[in-house]
Amino acid sequence: MRRAFDADHIAAIDNTTRKLVNEGKRPLSVGFFFSLGYSSVVFALAVLLNFGIRGLYPIGFLFGLGFNTAAEVALLVLAGTAVVGGLPFYATLS
């Protein structure tokens, strides 16, 4: 919930909405699709970690992808630790 009120996210949604209004388009669901895209990247990386990291956790690579918040990095560290610990993929994703 806290992530929904980050200034950079609100600014990105606001700028996109203003651009669409200026172009004469209806900016319906801009926030929904922003959050869907944002969360799908985190989910996809958790899936990739689940299937591709059995003995190695490339933290520097994740930082290089732009995961600059502690919450996202912690989520991915937990997912990687769960995979290395031998949990099944559905337990890791939950």
What is the topological layout?
Blueprint: H1 7-22, H2 30-52, H3 59-64, H4 70-84, H5 89-93
Task: Describe the protein's architecture and organization.
This protein is an all-alpha fold. The protein has one domain (2-93). It is built from five helices and no strands. The protein has helices at 7-22, 30-52, 59-64, 70-84, 89-93.
Distance between the termini: 18 Å
- Strand fraction band? under 5%
Structural class: mainly alpha
- What is the number of independent domains? 1
Instruction: Give the tally of β-strands.
Output: 0
Mean pLDDT: 78
Helix-strand sequence: HHHHH
What portion of residues is helical? Answer: 55-70%
Task: Characterize this entry briefly.
With 94 residues, the protein is mostly helical.
Tag the structure with descriptive keywords.
single chain, 94 residues, mainly alpha, elongated, 5 helices
